[in-house]
Amino acid sequence: MTVPPTLRRAALAAALSLAALPALVHAAPSPMLDASHPVNWWFAFKFNAASFPGCGGSAQVDSCQFGGSPQDYTSGNGFSQQFVYASSSQPSLSQGGGCVGDTTTDPVGATFKQIYNGTLNYVVWNDQFYGDPAIPSCSGASCGAPWGHSKGVLAWDNQGNGVVMQVSTPSWPASGSAQYPRGSDGNTLGCVQDNDVKVSQHFFALKLSHADTLAVLQGLANASVVTDPGNPQIVKNGGPADIQNAVSQLGQQSDSSTPQVSKLSSGVTLIAKPSALQVPPWQLVSAELGGVPLRAATWWEGSKSIAIPSTSRAGAPACWDSSLPTPGPVAIATSGSWAGRSFSLKGGMGYNFNHAKIGVSTGNGTAYAIFGDMNQEGALSGNCASAQNGRGGLFFALPNATLASSIAKLIGGSTAAAAR
């Protein structure tokens, strides 16, 4: 029997529609390794200017694809946009090329482009916007306690599927859409007035389901992150009603003193510390992960009284809440190495310091790689509201032995002395 041409065309159209279904599935927001490679998660560590200056190879910051112009950071001892990264498709760290954040071929730039040049809903938050955008509810160029010490961008589609990118960079990002560009500064790494690429920084991106997106939004509210739902430069609210309602609760200081601990669909544990829970941040993470011992690298200045020392054994410090589990020991990494080159993991204003907040579990059991907002600064005893003890923030604990081992080597140098 001869099939009429109209039926053949209809059958072909149906077949093509079915073939396109996987592409539709992949159209949900995802972390991107480059313009065409979505993954479930990636992590990137940007080096400081002393250890790996400039960009990889002969690359230079020139595109400023999200706004701004290349900056002359020479008066601030230069810059670094060299980086190492890992992902769900390759969980061991490897060195990237070019200038991280300034291209469509690096994870940070490719993932942010999906948001900035797309049609997704978004929330951008940062306690150091430096006045652009201005945040009416906090005074000054940056927002101190009890606002959360937290930075990042969350984006989602109309079904609520999303991607979150945690960053440690002041003044970036500060706009979520090319339709609402930053007015007085750039919005691209290497193209903002603040030299936030002088010291080490970290970036972590994770794919989210609808339920995950809602959990992250609730965590942001619990941590009192700095944003403004009424400003389209940093918030575009849309999608499912429950997500829209959660977005509307942001930009306020939470009175919660209870941490939010959520297991996401990826297996990642999200921990949101509220400002009113005045405990050492990384001890809280250890406690909520079952008392596992940790090694963490954060903005840690040993010369300051707020620098929390390493702890050598399990046990609750004096600055603790009786409702919490008991934390394990927390070691403070003060140096690391890559490709035979050592670098400092201490905090400070020079070009040889670290502003990333990363850690790993070091005991038996589940191996976690941990990405946080918060420095290990505050107090184990005494003034329990000191520094980061009195602020909020998020932590993402990713169970992956290969990644945890790779990060452990990266931050496996010297260790701050223990208090007990």
TrEMBL record:
Gene Ontology molecular-function annotations: deoxyribonuclease II activity
Statement: the UniProt record of this protein carries the keyword Hydrolase: yes
Transmembrane segments: none
Key word Transport present: no
Pfam families: DNase_II
Signal peptide: 1-27
Family under the similarity heading: Belongs to the DNase II family.
Protein name: Uncharacterized protein
Species per Swiss-Prot/TrEMBL record: Chromobacterium sinusclupearum
